[in-house]
UniProtKB/TrEMBL annotation:
Keyword line: Signal
Entry-linked Pfam families: FG-GAP_3, TSP_1
Gene3D superfamilies: 2.40.128.340, Thrombospondin type-1 (TSP1) repeat
InterPro entries: FG-GAP (IPR013517), Integrin_alpha_N (IPR028994), TSP1_rpt (IPR000884), TSP1_rpt_sf (IPR036383)
UniProt name for this protein: Uncharacterized protein
Top-level division of the source organism's lineage: Eukaryota
Amino acid sequence: MMLRYRTCPQPNLCGKENMQAQTCAKKKCDGSGYAVKIAWTAWGSWGPCSASCVSGVRYRYRACKKGESLSFSCPGTSNMLDYCNQFECSEAQNAPPSPMFSLESKAVAHLCMMATTKVFWVFGDFNGDGNMDLMCGSQFGEFEIGLGTTSGNVKGASWKGRLQGCGGHSSGQIRVGDFNGDGQSDIVCTDRIKRKTTVRLSNHGRFEDDGFVGSFCTGDADFLIVLDLNGDEKSDLLCRHSTDYEVLLNRFMS
């Protein structure tokens, strides 16, 4: 509101109106009394096209802002439509999408046919050829490895042997990791009865010497996790106790 005034040199002769008012700011005000601008934001980027051919559409959007808040008082619309990929589909584009998975019958060798013993399995690239291999073992420390092929098959047992300190699930845990950074999967075993932790290094799918022997993560409630914690491409050990965690960084393979 704007106001203006006038004075009369002879009050008895002038009229009664000595003030005139006029409306000025028609914008809405915020709580401080200042005018708040209401306007559209800039248009956003175009979204993806809904089709790869023939009849695709895409949208872009804008928002109506009242100061820093959203508003619904702006004239016009908040979205804009555009037609895209308006051309005939090729034969390949008309074909249905390929399934993510396909069911195939693959030959898996008979491994660890050990009578009257509990058998468990672990997976890794034990010879470093890029194919997934299978290792099976018994609770008495008897192990076999079947090497995988590029076609998804698993060959017969390429190695059999006993791994001292790796007694299987009945008395501990067994995990897979690359502890010396040579690209071949090694194994680490814990024995809760003997309170012993053993790392066995793979030599092209054969296990011979111990890499580390200690007593890490051998409690009855402990859970062993293998991962590369410091990014040096060598597996470290993480032990989850009942109330906290303990870390063993891979220093013994340096």
